[in-house]
Amino acid sequence: MADSRRYQPKPETLALLAESGNPINGLGEAEPRRPSPFFWHPPDKHPYGELQKAARQSSRRCPGATEAFVAAYTHPELVPVAASRREASARQFSSEVTAFAQQQEADAVGIAAMDPLYVFEGYSIEEPWVIVLGLAHDYEQLKQVPSDESNGAGVTDIGRQYARGTRASYALANWIRSQGYQARAFPGPSADALLLIPPAIAAGLGELGKHGSLINRQFGSGFRLAGVTTDMPLEATAPDIFGADAFCQTCQICTRECPPGAIAPEKQMVRGVKRWYVDFDKCIPYFAETASCGICIAVCPWTRPQVRPKLLAAMARRERDESESGSPR
């Protein structure tokens, strides 16, 4: 079991934390607003350029990581939008988009209407729809984070899933453009205009977990996201509420296992929404020093393949019992 009291960031790492990231992220703000650019945006958009550089250098020390992340940043050019638009119903296009994305490595696909709150300050997105893709981790490799110079399996798998997201999102964007509609791809690990987790929740890819990542009923927290925005007529998929948020309210595993103690046991107000929040100032120095992290999503009970079906069954029973008794969930 990790003990958060054991970890103290190196002075040279703290020196790179130019200012607290929690106010930038909107911690404690009661009014909704668009998110500000953060750690994984280009360095000229936030005060953490040198710390970001240190984190990248740390992760690249792991065997196989450099190749995996090079693939994540490698993508084709977007093709020109076809001059003539193919006509079909929103339902038909949605079905085709989902099928195409699944053929192009996506393990989960959801569709949400665009919301201005999904767009980072200083950026713009004109397309009215966002398609969110989920790329599942190899759990056995994910468990091996943080990685180091002798074992790069964990961080390499992170890079591998981001690379799959890059390939899948660009392939989908180009297919949509070939049908005569605008489309742009937004893969990780670098951030761009699109905030991915809120539309992923709206599109049914999961519920927000205490560790700040999504929990999906099929993959737990062990997956990465990529997005595509488009003006192709589509139909939104519904949110998927299966009990993960309720479970997180009593589970303390990720809070306990986080070495820097960055995961709060209670929800906090962030840009007008009371939600789970991970302390940026505690998380990022550890992340930068240990060649990436992911402990919280690896130890999450929902991510463990043998545990997840039991949790789903237990939460379904709880919902059924509360429905029959008339008590609130």
- Secondary structure class reads alpha+beta
Oligomer: single chain
Helical segment count: 13
Q: Could you name the ranges where pLDDT drops below 50 across 5 or more consecutive residues?
A: none
Rounded average pLDDT: 94
Topology order in helix (H) and strand (E) letters: HHHHHEEHHEHEEEHHEEHHH
Q: How helical, in percent, are the residues?
A: 25-40%
Radius of gyration: 20 Å
Biggest sheet overview: 4 strands, antiparallel
Q: What amount of the residues lies in strands? A: 5-15%
How many beta-strand elements? 8
Which sequence of strands runs across the widest sheet? 1-2-6-3
In whole angstroms, the N-to-C terminal distance is 31 Å
Quick one: overall form?
A: globular
Integer tally of domains: 1
Structural account:
By secondary structure, the chain is an alpha+beta fold. The chain has one domain. Helices cover 37% and strands 11% of the residues. The chain is built from 13 helices and eight strands. The chain has helices spanning 11-16, 22-25, 49-60, 65-72, 90-103, 139-142, 153-178, 197-202, 244-248, 253-257, 280-289, 295-299, 308-325, and strands spanning 108-113, 129-136, 183-186, 207-208, 214-215, 223-230, 268-270, 273-275. The strands form three sheets. It has a four-stranded antiparallel beta sheet. A hairpin with a 5-residue loop joins strand 4 (207-208) and strand 5 (214-215). Helix 5 packs antiparallel against helix 7. The longest helix has 26 residues, at 153-178. The two termini are 31 Å apart.
SSE order and pairing:
Blueprint: H1 11-16, H2 22-25, H3 49-60, H4 65-72, H5 90-103, E1 108-113, E2 129-136, H6 139-142, H7 153-178, E3 183-186, H8 197-202, E4 207-208, E5 214-215, E6 223-230, H9 244-248, H10 253-257, E7 268-270, E8 273-275, H11 280-289, H12 295-299, H13 308-325
Antiparallel strand pairs: 1-2, 2-6, 3-6, 4-5, 7-8
